[in-house]
Design a protein that fits this description.
3-stranded antiparallel β-sheet; mainly alpha; globular; Growth Hormone, Chain: A; single chain; 2% strand
């Protein structure tokens, strides 16, 4: 079957609908899950762990599951499995109030979310190769539609029947997703399998590491605030279930609206060095507004600002992680990026819950705001460094850039016999170079202009003459 086959087009439509109900199942209860756990008498620390294990599971499973999908090409099975796991997870959370069992069912929710790679690859396989961008835009639209549907269903049921019933709605939408997924037809997807060596190679790419590191902070703030404890702050201000649902819907609506800005000429003109630090600062403002909110209307405004800034920030980081990567490594870099930001999804709610128990929600939101400021500062400093030194000998150039302050006068000399790099200067400087100067290219035969190269014969003579104050790294 080809992408123009009527059965494939029908399967594409069905998979789009399945995606809507899949994410509705994952998110129906999200705005009300933290308030519900509070009504059970659980501490904020325990609530943080229950929320955070969702991200921890994805961090552990996402790459192995992607490799399995590439090797076996069982995308349809993965989609059905994801719908099944989210259904069982929500049903289990609805039926039990036992904390260990709740942890187990939250892990199943994380397993379900990890199957998203199967959805995206299978959906793109229903399109011609030159329409990959259109495929991703359409399935992301289904994703966001599902979240909006979830917040509407959750708000209505929580208002009428209490905070526990949205879990039942998650189960019902999950059942619909499972039933519809059985009618999806497989399509052959041509995709280069992820190689383990290539995966390890991404660990050394500064152009991937920096966005992934910043995404840890972004996801940490997102999962600890908008997707968990912001709802509890809103409830503490006397908000009804409908107001909590409306607040979460505002966040999602402006996440969708941010796509208009990211694709605008203004975003391209400003560049990532301006947008990424700026959106981190807006996230700091969001945390402070929620932490010090006197009423729900301030929460509404914060959700608007936070939703727009968070989605813009994530889009820029997502694009940045593959910006300097060769085409054959882009999927590997993306998998690494997604696995790394799972750390933020895990530790964010845990830290938020722990600090809330110790010092209160205001102090906890303030601390997360300071984390956003630190991330903005790091982005502003390191983004131009990465941009200047990519592509090419990234780490070596970064080390030279670091030494550009002229604090030390450094002499670099490559010795063919020892294969070592001799650095004259302080031991700390030598140690930094030993860590950072790693390149696959052969060593340059001439030193940069600001270094004074030592002729090989002269160097040999000086070495034979006796010891000298040099550090070998």
């Amino acid at each position: 079957m080809t992408q123009t086959d009527p059965q494939i087009k029908q399967s594409r439509r069905i998979l789009g609908i399945v995606t809507v109900f899949f994410w509705a199942s994952e998110y129906c209860h999200v705005p009300f899950f933290t308030p519900y756990l509070n009504t059970l008498g659980l501490t904020s620390t325990v609530i943080g762990f229950l929320v955070g294990c969702y991200g921890f599971t994805q961090m552990c499973i996402r790459i192995p599951l992607g490799i399995f999908a590439d090797v076996k090409s069982k995308y349809r099975l993965i989609v059905i499995g994801g719908c099944f796991f989210t259904t069982v997870s929500s049903l289990g959370l609805y039926l039990t109030q036992n904390v260990p069992l709740m942890f187990f069912f939250r892990v199943l929710a994380g397993v379900a979310a990890s199957t998203w790679v199967g959805f995206t690859v299978m959906f793109s396989g229903y399109y011609p190769a030159d329409q990959g961008v259109v495929a991703m835009a359409n399935i992301n639209a289904c994703n966001n539609t599902g979240k909006l549907l979830a917040f509407v269903l959750g708000s209505v049921t929580a208002t009428l029947f209490g905070y526990q019933i949205p879990l039942l709605m998650s189960c019902i939408t999950g059942v619909i997703a499972v039933c519809l997924s059985l009618f999806i037809k497989d399509v052959k997807v041509t995709r280069t399998p992820v190689q383990f060596k290539a995966l390890l190679g991404t660990f050394r790419e500064t152009g991937v590491i920096l966005p992934a590191g910043l995404a840890i902070v972004q996801q940490m703030i997102l999962q600890a605030t908008a997707f968990s404890f912001t709802s509890e702050v809103t409830r503490g201000l006397g908000a009804s279930a409908a107001q909590i649902g409306f607040s979460s819907s505002l966040f999602t609506i402006f996440q969708i609206a941010s796509a208009l800005f990211v694709g605008h000429r203004l975003a391209n003109k400003l560049g990532e060095r301006v947008i990424i630090p700026s959106t981190f600062l807006v996230m700091c403002l969001y945390c402070l507004m929620v932490g010090f909110a006197p009423n729900v209307y301030v929460i509404y405004l914060a959700q608007i600002l936070g939703g727009f800034a968070n989605a813009t920030l994530f889009s820029m980081l997502l694009a940045g992680c593959i910006k300097y990567v060769s085409p054959e490594k882009k999927s590997t870099a993306m998998g690494f990026f997604q696995a790394v930001y799972g750390v933020g999804m895990t530790i964010g709610p845990v830290l938020m819950g722990s600090v809330t128990d110790l010092a209160g929600s205001t102090a906890a939101f303030t601390a997360f705001g300071l984390c956003a400021v630190a991330a903005a500062l790091c982005a502003y400093i390191f983004i131009p460094m990465v941009a200047k030194n990519m592509p090419g000998n990234n780490c070596c150039r970064l080390a030279l850039y670091w030494e550009n302050a002229h604090t030390f006068r450094i002499l670099l000399r490559h010795t063919k016999k020892q294969g070592a790099l001799l650095i004259q200067g302080r031991p700390l400087t030598a140690f930094i170079h030993s860590l950072l100067i790693t390149t696959d290219k052969p060593a340059p035969t001439t030193a940069p202009d600001r270094f004074s190269p030592i002729p090989a014969a002269q160097a040999t003579a000086k070495s034979a003459a006796g010891p000298r104050p040099a550090t070998v790294c």
